[in-house]
Amino acid sequence: MTSQRTRQRLIQRLIEQGIKDTQVLTLMESTPRHIFLDEALSHRAYEDTSLPIGFGQTLSQPYIVARMTELLRTHAPDAQLVLEIGTGSGYQTAILAGLFEQIYSVERIKPLQDKARKRLTELGYRNVMLKHADGHFGWSQDKQFDAILSAAAPRQVPQELLDQLAPNGVLVIPIGEASQTLVMVKNTDEGFVTTEIEPVKFVPLLGGTTR
Ligand code: SAH
């Protein structure tokens, strides 16, 4: 079920859906998505679908992980510092950690963060910093990121995330409630430029933290 052939089939599907970045595709082929799921669901790890990780949250669909990562690599090619909002299982974090220098990731549900930390440590990732906090406020006011990726949808782009976007930095974030759109915001010399990417379905960006 977690065989090489099953993984290759997933990669083929991502290509058919328009993912072109070979580094993203190669990395997703070699990253064990099943490790980021509870055992009862691990046999479904290489289906192109989102899957439950507890606490009403989901591990993002592989296509959307690939798409968001590809957007960051295309529009912020020299990015080193990357902020992720919504660590969840840690799978997207692992993909980012394989492509960018230093990943900072915020999660509001402590038990999810604990599990993600354990998995990322076991898999040997050393360039990931995790924080239990409300991602509406980004990482901290005195830090700026070349790229920010949110795996949860607010109603509008939080100002704090824009404040933490470095010059030429790129934010990729789903926006909306019942109907959501993936948007990309670039911090250009002329100000923030927003581009709508495609309709998506994410869990909501909630306020506060849970122990
Ligand atoms: N990329 C993750 C996605 C998990 S779902 C994965 O593939 O596993 C989105 C995550 O965002 C959930 O874990 C949820 O708890 C978290 N989240 C929601 N609102 C948040 C907030 N305000 N701050 C930090 N994390 C938040």
Description of the structure:
- With 211 residues, the protein is of the alpha/beta class.
- It has a domain at 63-200: Rossmann fold (3-Layer(aba) Sandwich).
- It is built from six helices and eleven strands.
- The strands form three sheets. The protein has a seven-stranded mixed β-sheet. The protein has a two-stranded antiparallel sheet with strand order 1-2.
- Helix 1 (4-16) packs antiparallel against helix 2 (22-30).
- The termini are far apart.
- The relative contact order is 0.14.
- Bound molecules: S-adenosyl-L-homocysteine (SAH).
- S-adenosyl-L-homocysteine (SAH) is lined by residues 53, 57-60, 85-86, 88-89, 91-92, 106-109, 112, 134-136, 151-152, 203, 205-206.
